[in-house]
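Tutorial, part two.
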Amino acid sequence: MSTVSSSNPRSPWSFLALLPGLVLGLLLASPAHAAKSHAPSILDDAAFRTDALAGLDRLYEMDFPAAQSAFARIEERYPDHPVGPLLQGLLPWWQIQLDPEDSRHDAQFLAAMDQVVDRADRRLRRDSKDLDGLFFRSGAFAFRARVQAYRGRWLRAANDGRRALSSLRKVKKLDPDNVDLDFGLGLFDYLADEVPKQHPFLKPFALLLPKGDKARGMAELQRAAEQGRFVQTEAHFALYQLHFLFAKDYGKAMADVSWLREHHPDNPVFLVAQGRIYAQLGQWADANVLFQQVAERQVDGRPGYSGAIAEEALYWLARGEMASRRYADALQYLDRLDYLAQERNYDAYMKAAGRLRRGMTYDALGRRDDALRCYHEVLDLGVEGDVRARAQEFLNRPFAG
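Running the prediction step on this input gives:
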């Protein structure tokens, strides 16, 4: 079952799940300035960085075949290096990001991360200070922690997060002047401090991690976003999420997501993120323009514009119509949301959120019996959180419109 705030229906479920593609940034946070006494790193190789950047650029634009081709060439060139399976794992990783509730890609992704750890450990058995072994080991554990958190496996997530941070701090000691590494350190610092305060049930698991520092983490993330060489996209996305989900500072969130939209205009995750902010600010005309784009691109079959992404766009479009009391128009968007949700073989949050909004719309139209049916359907779905609580509320007292 999933728990998501109704103000942000597809927000992740914990501080570990918030890690915004952490290792996409860590991968290119090149330890090129590491002390020369250490063995050369693959990240010092200009040709590798060029190919990796090209593949990641295609990945951010949802061009999976081109990204796969670029990553396959790197694996062929470095067959025993942990970088190969990490890059290959980014394909199922982004499939998960497009629909975090869908677990069908988990096995392929986790197998790739296990292979990264195996290859990294072989290097570290030969040299405990091997930069690439530490670096990619950290990345694999950070990725793995996020997926464990998605599935509610909190102890495993916390243990993987601890191991990721331990390896990353060792890399920072070997390469203290690398600003890009501040991205991962800053994210852990902020979340380890703030999340247990906002989600008390996670406090026992947070004890497994080193103590964080919210202010220091924010400063580290801002430094990575402004001065980083390779992690700017990830740092801006992290800052957007922290401003949006934790601080509720929508002005700062908009500044970061505007940067993301300018640099990656075709990425559906960033497009939806900007639409969410407009919606939270009550700027429904601007929000509707973006969410209409998402819905249309899904119909056109644009890469990355999955049914799950379209469902959220339709949800917000319906909310926009409800905000203007155009309840019949809202039902049209909810009809299409229901149609897309029927393709799932599990109870997704958007299905429940759409059903809740349908019940509220029926209440506003004076169709109480239909509204009651919808609220009961929400309670019958295996989804927890605000949507369930609100359905129970409206069962007892009709939504007034």
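The two ends are 29 Å apart (CA to CA). In part three we will examine how such features are distributed along the chain.
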